[in-house]
Fold this sequence. Notes:
Number of domains of chain B: 2
Number of helices of chain B: 12
Distance between the termini of chain A: 66 Å
CATH class of the largest domain in chain B: Alpha Beta
Largest interface: A-B, 45 and 54 residues
Helix content of chain A: over 70%
Oligomer: heterodimer
Shape of chain A: globular
Number of domains of chain A: 1
Radius of gyration of chain B: 22 Å
Helix content of chain B: 40-55%
Strand order of the largest sheet of chain A: 1-2
CATH topology of the largest domain in chain B: D-Maltodextrin-Binding Protein, domain 2
Radius of gyration of chain A: 22 Å
Strand content of chain B: 15-25%
Distance between the termini of chain B: 71 Å
Structural class of chain B: alpha/beta
Structural class of chain A: mainly alpha
Number of strands of chain A: 2
Order of helices and strands of chain B: HEHEHEHEHEHEHEHEEEHHHH
Order of helices and strands of chain A: HHHHHHHHHEEHHHHHHHHHHHHHH
CATH superfamily of the largest domain in chain B: Bordetella uptake gene, domain 1
Strand content of chain A: under 5%
Shape of chain B: elongated
Number of strands of chain B: 10
Largest sheet of chain A: 2 strands, antiparallel
Amino acid sequence: MLESTLAALQLLFTPKAVMFLALGVVIGLLFGVMPGLGGTTAIALLMPLTFSMDANHAMMLVGGIMGAVSAGGSVSAILINTPGTAPNAATCFDGYPLAQQGKAGLAIGAAQAASTVGGCIGILTLIAVIPVAKQVVLLFGPPEYFMLAIMGLAAIAVSTGGQFLRGLIAGAVGLMLAFVGYDAVTGDIRYTLGSDYLWDGIPLVPALTGLFAISEMIALSVSGGTIAKEQVTTRVAQVWEGAWSVFRHWKVMVQGSVIGTFIGAIPGLGGTVAAFISYTAAMQISKHPETFGKGNIEGVIGPEAANNSKDGGALIPTLSFGIPGSAEMAIFLGVLVLHGIEPGPMLLIKHEGVMFSLILALLASTVLSAVVTLMIARQLALITLVDVHLLVPVVISMALAGVYALRETAGDVMLAGIFGIIGYIMIRFRYPRVTLVIALILGELAERSYHQSLNMGDGSATIFVTRPTSLILIVVTVGLLLAPVVQHLRRSRRFREPAT
Amino acid sequence: MLRLVLAAAVAATLPVTTAWAQFPTRNIEFLIPFGPGGGFDRTVRLLAPYMEQALPKKVEVLPKNVPGAGGRRALATVFRAKPDGHMISIMNSPGAAIPALLGEKVEYDLNKFTWVAKVGAEDYMIGVSAKSSIRTLDDLKKLGRPLKIPTTGFGSTAYAAAAVFAEAFGFKAEHIPGYKGTNDYIVGIVRGDGDIAVAPVSTFKQFVESGAIRPLVTFEEKTSMPGVRTVAELGHPQLSGLAVERYVVAPPGVSANVLKILSDTIGRAASNPELKAKAEKSGEPLDFIPASGARAAFDKALAVYEKYKTAIARK
């Protein structure tokens, strides 16, 4: 294993490889910063071009893109409250208020540093896990996926941000939307209104683009003015201060990275769920949870660490068994196959060198993309000074164009528009969109895994407790749900004692 | 008067001859009913550049992914397209026929498509976890309970093949649909979620190599793995050749001349030794049958599934 690492390292330093890596980083940043486009689109569009390339160079390109996309996306999230990619959505919650307070540089610096460290932790975890990757993947089957989905849904209960009832309602709506489409288990077709468009369910990228990007643009044009309400101070010092804050708030950063890696490794979940759960978790361990949503830097660090570490995690099932850990990984497998590399259990044995090229490219990209973004952070922050009536039409057209580019379906654009309106209504009436999104994404996984488990267990639900991993997850979920109750009891007891 | 008739005659033949001489007049769109990265995607992307070389005029052959609705979206699109030969699609058999077998309504009619060519097939195989004690079909029978068979869903070709297998060999089957992809459910039986998995031989190869899967029975005519019996040897020759097949189809009503050009182009591309080598390397060997034989090949393959229609529809 050491020789192939060294061989891959040697390759990394050839001019051609560096060129492809740099190209990937630039493309990743551009696709990331534009709402509606993302890593999956970028790799899918470039796939035919990689056909004639050497496999290692293709890995440089793809790794470069994957590592850079959410770094670019965080910039849009912070500056214009519009996530460049869905996993950056949680970054808006505190990144944008910081921009409004004129602290855009601080937020961008923190986001980049968190992305880099998170990405590195994810990849190091991957490298550490590789020898036992197969066993790890074998531990998690449908019953375990169901429990994990339940755990994620339980996170909704604590991520309502003070609007408990509204959060649950939004979550319920999300669940309802999750069940639209063809059900692989029963063969039923639900609520597709007779057309094939909704057959695969509500397409996530257009829905999320509408829910976060378009709705924010509507809100922005209603409020008018410019984004930065206070003096924009993006002196270089601020940007570096933001980067260093990541190490001061190291607990949130490490927690976010671990969450991201873990969730990324579960096929069917992705960066969006990872980022939201990391945000929720950051809120939970904070001593001042009420400051979240108003410009708490930890609200930027947590999700950004998670949405980069997820790449390392997603590679675990992808490299060990050829099971894509995320949509990006699915396309990535396509690139491999194009180069005659068959994904499956022999991948790491037969093509070690190429895989290490990818891992090194990913590592290099997380660092490179942060450096590039930090260098132009000051100029980027000036966007917050542009009048919104100029900004909004540009962003909406870019977002819708990006959504259309995904599948060349007009239906996607209309769906984005509809969700944009829904999102704006939710903003106005203060319904949290986070819970709707988590439910929308997890609902499908929960239902499918539940039925799979029942089929496996001959119709009996005891399968959830007879499998050890599943049992452990049940205990953890119950623990997570009871933790705030226990905390509350402890705090009230402490207040009572001094009186005696 | 004669000049008028002559002029009319020439004018009448002109569109036909110019149409034929002109095809293709613009780029040809080659639709793929699935997302990028799968076997069908690979086949089209491998074929496209060699088709461009073999066409009578210089145009581009553009692979276009149109995923959705289990492949039905692309087929519906090509079904409704103009039959001038500039839009064709690759098709999955028996996948495209299964909705009809299950009694579902689809937006295309397989009987009306223009069948351009067959380009390949991947035979199915049945495997069990290497950790299990099952080595023969008798061992399966001795389990004394229904077989648990994980698949991606009730519309999938693997599910149909599994239903056919169970019915023909007299097993009761409990299907566990919902896995996300072939690798996912193969790992599922390695994990112990189910008893057997049905998948193309080429997909199983890596798992057999890594020692995770033990091959049990193959649907190939001649086994490619030593020691593995074929369904013919085990008494069911009618199931021989059960496979995922790839066809190229065009909208209904394509003219005979255009059809010939398309079919010949694909044939010439498929016999290009460079392409053949590439296809073998990427695991998708090409097996070309021209337009004249494509429909018959499809019907022959479908006949097996038709025979076991009730088993497939039973879910």
